[in-house]
Amino acid sequence: MEDPVLEIRGLGKHFGGHTALADVDFTLRRGEIHALLGENGAGKSTLIKILAGAIQRDTGDILVAGEEVARRASPADVARLGLAFVHQDLGLVDQLSVAENLALEVGYERHHGLISFRETERRAARLLADVGTAVSTQALVGDLSQDEKVMVAVTRAVSRGARIIVLDEVSASLPAPEFDRLADSLRVAQERGVGYVYVTHRLEEVFELADRVTVLRDGRRVATAPVAETSHDEVVEWILGGALAPPGAVDKTSAHGQRPVRLQVRDLLSAGLAGPISFEVAAGEILGICGLIGSGTREVARLLGGAAKPDRGTARLDGKPLPLGEPHRLVGMGVSYVPGSRLEGAVPEMAIRENFFLSRRQGPDTDDPFVRVPWRERVSATRLAEKYDVRPRGAVERPLAALSGGNQQKVIFGRALRAKPRLLVLDDPTAGVDVGSRLELHGFLRETLDSGTSIVLASTDFAEVASQADRVLVMRHGRVEAELPRDQLTPDGLARASYGTPDQNASKEDQT
Amino acid sequence: MSPTSTESQAPANSEDADQVRGGLGHVVRSVMYKYALVAVLLAVIGLFSTVNPDVFPTFANAQTIASTQSTIALLALAAMLPLIVGHIDISIGFQFGLAQGLCAYLIVNMGTSAILAVGAVLAVGLLVGLLNGVLVAKVKLDSFIVTLAVGILVLGATQWLTGDVTISGQMPAWFLSLGRANVAGIPLPFIYVVLACAALWLTLEYTAWGRSCYATGGNPRAALLAGVRTERVTIQAFLLAGLLSAISGCLSVMILGASSPTIGLGALLPAFAGAFLGATSIRPGRYNAIGTLIAVYLVAVGITGLQQLGAASYVQQLFNGGALLIAVALARFAATRRSGT
């Protein structure tokens, strides 16, 4: 276990005047899972791109199994040395079977010059078993769960002879039980000597899975430590550099019951829900709706945000019925929606300024002019970018796509909040966002409450809901299973309620 | 089809993209890309003025180019609008042909007053645009197929109406002078084009409506969820395309004093070339009115210059196609370099 398979010494990289990486050391031992953490912009991506041969390093050495990697090594050279990269999108073909996806990498087995599918599948099964993955070789990749897809991608990398696999945020949208299965599979492959560089934003995963952790901040290595010898709080401290308060320290003011009801939802029902849903949200209250992926939380947010039309049921805002399914009319009534996918939230190739003012909001509290005086809009956009801490600063004319994910999300937040919405609907608003941006985004939510906004926060992130919500509806299998008041909100409690207690699950199975 | 492919394609979660850009070099380069087409236009003018000093750099030549290309320029602006909202309208060339034929038919064969005739042509243009828009935005059919079908229908209607022959005859003098007169030496048609271009540029860049159009083309889902009425904006774009094609058809009759059965199809490709080429300039990566106008005239100047040197007429197509390929390839190359990796 002691011999390093990957050794990085004094790695440095500049972009123009900006230092992306400075004197970074990193080692990966044989069969180790080494977590690489840091905020967006800390240098993780740069490090990975250098490893992958996508960009060249300025200084430093990289050794794979003791062998020096040339500065100008191409991605193909790197692959030959046994490095493989599994990114969030995995690079699998959904329409092909598991066996075919593996064959894309290692070739098909042939019999008399023709493809032998039986042999190809047999070999695929062998490869999958090697890394402890139990999926059918005939299944279409598109039908697999996310953790199974990740393992198919890992299997493909291993089959090609990779001994070092970089997993780049592959767990970003993985619900807890799937993560547990993924973790089990990764450990099996680990015993066969495969080492992992595991890039993630989720600290819980690090403590569950990794052997060691390295934290980058501002392009420098802040710390490397065995996971067993550190703590959650210490790692957060490393990531943030003590710049921000730890999560969960938000002072929550109780609002429900004291302020008037703003949103009334009655018997809302759609294809993604198992039964009608009713609830109320007060002015200045954050109602959390939490559950596992697929539990229906996203569906509720989509209905209220206008992305989907309910089969029946009503929602009233300040007594007036909401035109669900018609986004522009919802916007006109003071509803803002932050979709669960950034792909639905903004126009990447348009400027940051334009994304702030994408639509003309004419609601009860805002009235955007038809004519956009460019310099005035630039001033407003710059002000919004500062208020919502969009980095880099003062670059509102750049395309949104040039920003990191967290900063893109800040722009989407800025657009949703600038109009002082009466109802703000959020769907997993901080998924894939770094810790620092996440805390900032949560701070923005708190601010809007002062103006009497009602917030519906649908999320699969228990820690987020526990720290932000005033009250939580827990959903399971498309139904609301529990309502938890503020004093019962802990990530653990929410997780337990979301998974259901064992006897609840047993009774559920009869129905599903 | 999307012009955004010429824009930087930094991955959404790339944390390095913003570090690669910036600095004086970036500013200089982006200005270069913005005005590259203008520079090429000036260079082409300079080249032909040197090579052919007696014929090319004359005021009469400039007037001719400005005037004869005005219909193509209007048509290119018509092509641009559906492209902005993320669709394509290949019926505009046929609509242009119908407008031209209908306008001449009404005035010459029916003896309709010119004002009424123009009004009727514009109404028909709006109607065809509405049909395209509704089929694409509401019925959600593919715009290429819809406008191809509608275009063929329109072509059939035109042939039926005109008997597939040139219509020429008595037209009011004031009507023809609208296409042939000069103001301070500038041909009236060119003035119309500049006005249309300015109006479109201002509307697209500086109004909420223009923002809605670009947002709809850039990411229809995000635009919809942000409160943009994407269906309505799409229909409006097709309506405007129909209107501009109709205006272009009327203008063509004013200039020629006749209609021609083959003009529609011939106008389609240069118009699209102008719109695509224009998206590489002024607002690189985005279909825009000024870029489109410059592109149309760049191609026209190049072709005219070559023909005046004795080049055969097929040079027109070679130049058009070649210019488009080179411009789009260069824009792509520039975008790749800009995004750094």
From TrEMBL, chain B:
Entry GO MF terms: transmembrane transporter activity
Residue ranges crossing the lipid bilayer per the database entry: 32-51, 72-94, 114-137, 144-161, 181-202, 237-257, 263-280, 287-306, 318-335
CDD domains (alphabetical): TM_PBP1_transp_AraH_like
Subcellular location(s) of the protein: Cell membrane
InterPro entries, alphabetized: ABC_transp_permease
Domain of life: Bacteria
Record keywords: Cell membrane, Membrane, Transmembrane, Transmembrane helix
Cellular component terms (Gene Ontology): plasma membrane
Organism of origin: uncultured Arthrobacter sp
Membrane topology designation: Multi-pass membrane protein
Name assigned to this protein: Ribose ABC transport system, permease protein RbsC
Pfam families: BPD_transp_2 (PF02653)
